[in-house]
Design brief:
homotrimer; alpha/beta; Rossmann fold; 5-stranded parallel beta sheet; 4-stranded parallel beta sheet; 9 strands; EC 2.1.3.2 (chains A, B, C)
Chain lengths: 319, 319, 319
């Protein structure tokens, strides 16, 4: 049997978390179920358990992201691991050291896990293929390819508020073209059995043949939001707004920014999600971001638990 | 009853440490007394107690200050807390994320405490008003407004060497105008009952109507230092020296730099303090900085104990 | 008796690790023997022992080196110490605070150990002379002077693979002139009794009168590598390649780059070492770097154990 999924070993156990694409339903559910127990840990007075004591986890950020790094750092510390932050952009890489030499070096220091953020798609896969057995890699975002822990925390959030995936209409709204988050969300939603996943975006912000991912395409919010249960907003990267893809932030907000008015087109009990950080007044209005239907901050809370779950499953110490 | 002090809850317990202004005498003394016990911890062979185990403390530095960040990081680690350093200037903020969105995010990660440094006066207050009950904010310096832990460690140092506040003449010397340290010192000294607080500075470095704070104003070191028990030097910011407020560093040193000669005008047992880092040869001569009357390094030592005390009082775990 | 070695106290106990020069044979062997036991710790499931619990170790890096900082950070964390990273280039120093004022400050925070990296030769010595008894300094590289922990891990690696120093031919190859690593290696090899230490380099990359260090000088790889047991490659600094000392990286590789062909001139069981990060295709060919005779990654692994050994010997808690 050819092992087509580099994330799983021959027994189907999770070795790395690189993408939600091809992750079996049972594994998705296992991660979500594990995360439930970690939500409890993060709410305790002493938010710390000794599960990963003596493990060395490296936050290997080739692309700067204090926010994402922080979520992994907290998750690891609450599991009692030793965490080492490496911002490679400003150090070894500037000395010309190659990516895999850096990884080999840190592996030789008896690393247990790498949390990798990189501007290039495929970087985490490359590292995962390279490291020796027993070292685990978590993709914390690679180029426009994947951001699986973000998608998993989104799934966790949806399940918390909607309980069942099998009767949902979910809309992903915004810059699908450049979004690793959107890709990872679509794969996870599909595997979890969501019958209708929509993407809503201007043509210039949609990948070619996006329909092949099994989604329904809308260019118009009025139509796309109709009867939707879950709205997953995407962050509009500032750098995109200056490019040829978009006329202006104001123009974008007018057509695709989520306002209370547009939200009223969805189901009355629809939830609003955003991976953060938000551009208020660009892709989302503050009234919605801070409104009753927003679950944006719970997403963050669940994100810590989901990362703790992934880390503990990977190290095989899951209680 | 209107709760006019955002630092205290309705029972008068400390919720945040934002400023020494309006902090009741009993609370000041409670912090100083608690710090006494933590001085012992920092002198032990194993400088660590499990008081804040499992707590998540975020050093939220919107203005870079390795030195101040280090004091809080050490204090937190010696209390066994998990510490996360965030230098926001170089990350989220540059993505356009607003201050309060950042705080909301970190709060959603189940933060217990924020140590906030910000170039704008009022930033720590803004955050304290915003966070939910149970999350504590320590102001580690906001603009030219306040730096309460510095003032508290100064008070601790004075008490250690002078025992009683009620018969002291204290002079604060230097750039009062831009100094958050001076403001916090004046409020604390006044509340603790120091009968005579003097400020000594050129007119261009004094706030308008500074007398309203209850201090005596001197423009001349010879007069201002006469019979003084405590000299609190201020750091002259380099950026001020280039401005219109001052002719030159040399000129400043001639008139306001503390030399052995000028120090001899104070009481023979007067102590010399400085919040650091010092500009030797500008506001203070090395002979004085390293001299017998200097208590500048003990200030640093006590600073760790004072921060441990504040952190433990805030989290309500004070033994 | 005059204590000529600032690293040792009057009883010959190690107080600081500043250089391998003048370090007695017994002390070298004590460090290597201690490191043996720590190799075991780094291979355990829980890679952590409580030896330095409650100790405060400061990584004081005045010159940026994520890689070296990481090795010390991991070593300290696996000993359960509290570690504080300070990148001084970007903070206090830019406020004009002098080196020794910074050190005094951190010492006043009850520091136990400073790991110092500085672009200027002698910086670690200066700090070691300055700090009070009980605070230990490890030189993590100062200018072109010394890098003792690198040399010690190299000795550990040689002993592991060659067992005995007394019948070895060791060649150090590359930019001897600017290399603190080479200086520290030569002193350690000589003290450990290696009968023949060679240096191989173009004349422009050799210090004047290098023979005085007791080494044999070669300008030609064919002659220099003959019958050698250990090849210690040096990193060619990028900045050197642009200077007048070298025609080009390609030219350098042709004459001094280690290829399989050149390696075949050494003994068949010779080992190849490199302190990293490597410039593949400049001082070393990938076929050799990743080849059977390379012990470059084991060097990294042993480096953690050696640093743990040094830290634990210094704090006098060595079990």
């Amino acid at each position: 049997m050819i092992n087509r999924n580099p994330q799983l070993n021959e027994n189907g156990a999770l070795q790395h978390l690189l993408t939600t694409e091809g992750l079996p339903l049972s594994m998705l559910l296992h991660i979500l179920d594990s995360a439930e127990s970690f939500v409890g840990v993060t709410e305790r007075d002493v938010k710390k358990i000794p599960l990963l004591r003596g493990k060395s986890i490296f936050n290997l950020f080739f692309e700067s992201s204090t926010r994402t790094r922080t979520t992994f750092e907290i998750a690891a510390k609450r599991l009692s691991a030793d965490v080492i932050n490496l911002n490679i952009a400003v150090s070894a890489q500037s000395k010309g050291e190659a990516l895999l030499d850096t990884v080999d070096n840190l592996s030789a220091m008896n690393a247990d896990m790498f949390v990798v953020r990189h501007a290039q798609s495929g970087a985490a896969h490359l590292i995962a293929k390279h490291v020796r057995s027993g070292i685990h890699v978590i993709n914390a975002g690679d180029g426009s390819h994947a951001h699986p822990t973000q998608a998993l925390l989104d799934m966790f959030t949806i399940r918390r508020y909607k309980h069942d995936f099998h009767n949902l209409r979910v809309a992903i709204i915004g810059d699908i073209l450049h979004s690793r988050v959107a890709r990872s969300q679509i794969h996870a939603l599909t595997t979890l059995g969501v019958p209708e996943v929509r993407v809503i975006a201007p043509k210039t912000l949609l990948p070619k043949m996006v329909e092949r991912l099994g989604v329904h395409v809308y260019h118009d919010m009025a139509k796309g939001l109709k009867d939707v249960d879950v709205l997953m907003m995407l962050r509009l990267q500032n750098e995109r707004m200056k490019g040829a893809n978009l006329p202006s932030a104001e123009e974008y907000f007018k057509y695709y920014g989520l306002t209370a008015e547009k939200l009223s087109l969805a189901r009355r009990d629809a939830i609003v999600m955003h991976p953060g950080p938000m551009n208020r007044g660009v892709e989302i209005d503050s009234a919605v971001a801070d409104g009753k239907q927003s679950v944006i901050l719970p997403q963050v809370t669940f994100g810590i638990a989901v990362r703790m779950a992934v880390m503990s499953i990977l190290t095989g110490n899951q209680a």
